[in-house]
Amino acid sequence: MITGSAAAAFTGAATGSAHAAAPARPGAPVPAPAFPAGRASVASPAVTYTNSIAEQRADPHIVKHTDGYYYFTATVPAYDRIVLRRATTIQGLASAAERTIWTRHTSGAMGAHIWAPEIHFIGGRWYVYFAAGDAEDVWRIRPYVLECAAANPVTGTWTEKGRIALPLDSFSLDATTFVVNGTRYLSWAQHDPAAGPGTNLYLARMSNPWTISGTPVMLSRPTAWWETAGHMVNEGPAVIQRNGRVFMTFSASATDANYCMGMLTASASADLMNAASWTKTASPVFSSNAATGQYGPGHNQFTVSEDGKSDILVYHDRGYKDISGDPLNDPNRRTRVQKIYWKADGTPDFGIPVADGLTPVRLSSHNFPDRFISHQGFRARIDADGSPLADSQFRVVPGLAGGGTVSLESASHPGHFLRHRNFEVWVEKNDGTALFRADASWAARAGLADPRGLSYESYNFPGRYLRHHQYLLQVQAVGTATDRADATFHAQ
Question: Within a 10 A sphere around the Cβ of 160, how many other Cβ atoms?
Fold first, then answer.
């Protein structure tokens, strides 16, 4: 993981390590790993990770604790146990030792289909929420809770607090808990025979970490096309709070390539137990993307970056579309992460599930900080925040021309790179020629207008820099203060 403007200068090694790119010419300065002063209110500094974090781990949950560790749990393909690992970085979870903290019963309740564990720290103790069936009736899925009093939950002893008692005794799963204005809530998915087929989202207040109080309210029922493909499903609620609002994402449709994420939104000051306080998106906020090769993204949760300045989306998906047989028998859902960006209206923008490997960054203009390098019709420009997020995201990879350079690969069009042609900058597919490799390679320099930013010098036209002019990107020589500002960018 890299923070600050230096994020755009690394090579993106396949190992997941981040390495500073060597200057293309001796003596050239490298960017300082700090976010420019006065710009923190615009956006958080760049953070990058290498996906996937964990193979064959579905329904992931990652929490950053006050002890400096990230704790990670997820569904295992055998559906027979709960595992836990920890590391001081999100990337470190990929290689962290994994320990089984609980195993299914051999008979009766909690004897089958151990699904979707979540780990929470409440009142000085650790709790894991999970769903389980009966050994003799595997589809009798209900929510359960484990408790651990140890400081380190990976090595501590876990005890069973039992089943969360719900007023309706029916198929129910994916319990999560959160606090708004001092009140703790439980949200979950459940089938109500009286409401019709499928699972709906519910909310209730809690009197302790394993007990709800009062009457639950149904927040959402699957009715739209994107909620009913294959199965009628609303499940996997997850909550993030920002800008005076509560955002509850959830997963919808069958657990194949149709699986996707929707979102409910409520004011943090509203009565959350009133379903009318919540508004559902008209379409998915996160879904399969053939261009990046990611299918069925969902069952997400949220965490924060190591510096605490960026919100991170945690989710699972598959790297292929077609599945033989029941998707539940396919073991290859894997845990992934990527940065969340926030729109000018205060709502989250999840973009698209990015390609495998290094996650992308955005590059904002030094003198127009609300505009980002982007592409419309493949002509590169700087655009305001309203443009599609993925069109303003670039993966910074080792330069196609080598020599310590970098190349900027489009997140929305993998295999397409920022390149100059007749000194205009376009996003074009790599044609494999030496000319393309040279045109698409840049020496990452300390920002010409701010050494804590970045400037990109053309590999094959030294002295010419990537800069914007009337919002369009060009490759030009720089001489004036305005030129230098136009040629300086900040990684976010």
Answer: 14
Portion of the chain with pLDDT greater than 70, in percent: 91
H or E element in which residue 482 lies: helix 481-486
Residues 97 and 245 in one domain: yes
Residues 153 and 70 in one domain: yes
Q: Is 235 a catalytic residue?
A: yes
Choose one of 299, 329, 354: the last residue of a domain.
354
Question: Which CATH number belongs to the domain containing residue 189 in this structure?
Answer: 2.115.10.20
Closest C-alpha to 491, from 365, 357, 315, 312? 365
Looking at the 3D structure of the chain, how many domains does it have? 2
Using the structure block, give the residue that is written with the tokens 């094959």: 460
224 and 120, same structural domain?
yes
Q: What are phi and psi of 179, to 5 degrees?
A: -120, 135
Q: What does each C-alpha distance from 411 to 32, 139, 374, 417, 466 come to in angstroms?
A: 25, 40, 10, 9, 19
**pLDDT tens digits along 257-273:** 999 999 999 999 999 99
Backbone angles phi, psi at 37, to 5 degrees: -60, 140
Do 167 and 93 belong together in one domain? yes
Cα 19 to Cα 356, 396, 441: the distances in Å are 18, 11, 17
How many C-alpha atoms does 477 have within 13 Å on its Cβ side? 2
Together in a domain, 254 and 395: no
Whether 136 is a known active-site residue: answer no
Please report which helix (H) or strand (E) contains residue 436, including its range.
helix 434-439
Residue of 118, 174, 235, 383 with catalytic role: 235
Residue 424: phi, psi to the nearest 5?
-95, 150
**Cis peptide bond prior to 52, omega within 30° of 0:** yes
Backbone angles phi, psi at 425, to 5 degrees: -110, 130
Residues 416-438 have pLDDT tens digits of 999 999 999 999 999 999 999 99
Domain extent for 299: 50-354
CATH number (domain holding residue 21): 2.80.10.50
Residue 39 sits in the same domain as residue 59: no
Among all chains, which residue has been given the structure tokens 């009966």?
Answer: 134
Residue identified by tokens 């290094």 is 358
User: Do 383 and 423 belong to one domain?
Assistant: yes
Quote the CA–CA distance of 372 and 392 in Å, as a whole number. 6
Residues paired with 410 in a beta bridge? 394
Q: What is the pTM of this model?
A: 0.91
Confidence of residue 34 (pLDDT cuts 50, 70, 90): very low
Pairing mode, strands 183-190 and 200-208: antiparallel
Q: Are 316 and 235 in contact (CB under 8 A)?
A: no
285 and 394: one domain? no
